Amino acid sequence: MNCARCGASLPAGGGACAACGGLAATMDDTQTGPMDAAPHLPGRFEPGQDFAGRYTVIEAIGEGGMGEVVKALDRKLGRAVALKLIRPRALERASALDRFRRELTLAQRVTHPNVVRVHDLGEIEGALYISMEFVEGQTLEDLIQSMGQLSPRQTLGLARQIAAGLEAVHAQSIVHRDLKPGNVMVDRGGHALVMDFGLAYQKGSERLTRDGAVLGTLAYLSPEQARGLAVDARSDLFALGLMMYEMLAGRRPPGDGAPVPFGVREDVLDCPPPSRFAPDVSAAFDAVVLRCLERDPERRFGSARALIDALLPLGDSSSGSGAVPLRATSTRVPSRPAAWALVGVGIALTLGLGVYLARDAREAERRPGSIALLPLRYDGPAETAYLKDLVPVVLGRALSGATDLRVAPFSVSRGIAPEEPVRATLQQLGVAWVLKGEIAMAGKEVRGRVQLFGAGDEAPRATTQLGGTPEQVIGGIDALAAEIAAQMGQRRPPASAAAAPDTLATYLEGLAFLEGWDREKSAERAEAAFRRAVKADERFAEARAGLAQALWRRYTSDRDARLVEEAGAEARRAVSLGPSLPEAHLALGVVQLGTGRSAEAAASFRRAQELAPADDAVCRRIAAAYASLGRSDEADRLYAQAVELRPGYWENWNDRGAFYVDTGRLADARRMFEEAVRLQPEGVAGLNNLAAVHILDGHPADAEPLLKAAVRLMPTASAHSNLGFVYYALGRFEEAAQQFRLAAEAAPGDFTYHGNLGDALRQLGRKQDANAAYGRAVDLAREALGVNPAQGEIRASLAMSLAGAGRCSEARPEARRAMAEPQPTPTTAYYVAIAEVLCGGRRAALEAARRAIQGGVKADVLTNRDLAPLLSDPELAKLLGPTS
After folding, report:
1. Where do the H-state alpha helices sit in 372-438?
2. Exposed end of the chain (fewer CB within 10 Å): N or C?
3. Residue 544 has pLDDT above 90, yes or no
4. What is the CATH number of domain 351-499?
């Protein structure tokens, strides 16, 4: 059990906290014992019941030392709210009641997207209640606990938002005084909101304020708070520094496990930087956090605005070059103790918002027709929150019809915070114009505005008011697009044929999940959203193209052959409905390439490129097609073109790195993956692929910490399998078997993981268990070959599993067929070498191993125990060099 005041561990037998004297329950200001447990207020919070003549109770949310909290429908506002009912005993002293009312009155004055709104204060049957904005999500405390620690980019995004909320709070002369992870909500979209101004409802966490008292939760107190001295805005910034430290390092400073909270420690004790516990944190980020944690308030940032200004430049430097965040449809089979799984080479649908050409800020300024549309600030009920994204999406589609106009994909621009300075936005996105604004719901109508900014603009170049019902606002998009185009010197774009707003919103949701392929279950969520959009509008070609891609992505992980047929049908239907739609041809090409029809895929990709000549996603897919045909020079040129078109998009670097690994250029691959990690630290592709380079370069021990971080960040099948591969290469077969088993359980339809498990169990001498795993791998590999018989690596993997199970009469023909492919890859040769050596075919094994080494698969040959008998061969030893 932990102390409610400072978070330190309490003695197993109970008693007072050694750090602060607190107990496991919240302490009243005047009592020396814990408060009574919060009783349920009978009949007051039953679902469906009326409350106070205005609210309909939906469900209970929580219960704490001051009372209960429920989600309810505010019939007057027409939205869901959170109701906090304050038990009379919690406010039994008149002074406490006065302070409570005053603090709530102040909180109602704060209106900001990053502060939870307080709607109303009332009283019923002697109990006070507060009506507040309801946030669908979790507290930052729960987020940190579930993830262990956050990436620098995640921390940076949340810290900026929290600081922006504090700036609005401080502008009203309010000091929060109890800022902590439990008092910050993070909604499902990653939006942070500060809440609880001197009042909290969680049991055992808060006390009412009292002048001259030590306020807040001890673990997050500033030194001046801990001494009972006067506090100001800088005390809140100290707490935010503690929170940033905890997000980055997964622990509170100084991280030594001592029970005394940092704010009440002796001045002489230094605080180590967060990077000591999270090496991917940059020195600049360390400096910002440590400045917030200065014990002397005069040495901290003077205001939340000053902190925000210090955080803004960290967008490009918040992570180091070596570690943190996968892709399916790999050009190499997922990891095997016989080879590594490169996570990469896939596709994201970004064409639906118009073609995007971005090189650098200087070129953007020379191209007057490039624009980014940011998500709008939003204030209103959750059911219409989709408008903040839907308006810029539909507007982008309308603008893309103008001559020479290039619209940045919303998948990129939606990551820019609305408060980001215009100059920084123009530089980050490589555009000449940016459109931003805000909307709010007033009853059933929208009220808001959008503003157009150009390079060098301090004030908006043009402002357009928005008003009417959501349907009227969406219906007026064409006129708005014409007005914006005119301000940019472009001709009036043609009228667009848009789907219904709610259908477009569903499509946008699917697109977000599809582009987030390196996040858990994103393909399934994308599929579900696209299916809803197609059901609402059967002729919605973009949604069908997205559905095709989501289904194919699911196949690459689940290996369910039924998904292939449906993915192809949806792609063909998308082309039929939208013959001039680039993403339709793109989706069809993905399925064609994955089923072995490379020439047809290349034709589909070329058609997509004709329709969208400056789109990086098309370049990547055509490059993959050329690579599969052995046309490496053309593939390299197109991968380079994709990077040049959109250098800020991590996937371009990632896929180019995968290509370099396949062609044996490890140094170039490492450089590509390091840049991919820098640009996308929230996923796990960079961790996996950087680790792959370490493995292939003969340094598996260097890969272990990267992969442990990947498993901690996202425990996917691929992450477990890759970590298992490292253990296998190091001879730690028990640990390898454990990781491979977790991988097979996470993706039971993938033959690779079952084959991995069989290899590890065989090395442990567990023949019966190994043969069971091999048997499952054989069945699944044969199913995969039924989809694409030309996949030599899958056939070689099949041969390897058959050989591991001792079924050599079946293994040898499969190995020969794999090597008889027109251009067997080095990985194919490596798999075949293992199969042949297990079956006693030394000559064939030596020839396959030689081809594998010449193709760059050197470290695998050196570290694989099965191939050890071959290393004494003089020709092989010469190829391996002095490391052998």
Report:
1. 387-399, 410-413, 422-429
2. N
3. yes
4. 3.40.50.10070
